[in-house]
Amino acid sequence: MKIQFNTDANIKGTEELSARVCASVEQALERFAEYITRVEVHLSDESRGRSGPHEQRCMLEARLQGQQPVAVTEHSTTLEQAVHGATLKLVHLLDHKIGRQKDQRKKITDLPLSESEAEPE
User: What is the pLDDT of residue 54?
Assistant: First the structure.
């Protein structure tokens, strides 16, 4: 699973920030690694340098093998909170999406192949 890190012009995308965020996202999504080809992390400051309360935004987009990408967004007062919130949302979304696919596959494979398998002797 590859993680691509992006920031807007209002956030200083240091190596330390990139490493911290990527490690956090990778750890949270580790169990989905076989399904995900790439995760894009987009951090931005919605207040764009204006005075007043700062609103940080984290958007995570997961590219799934053979499927359309899925994305989540979280707004918060700090980048750490925004990343944490977006990561939780993405884990929940992937649990639901991938879990549903597994259930569907299980239903198909659990079907009896012939009438003799449907009724045990």
Answer: 66
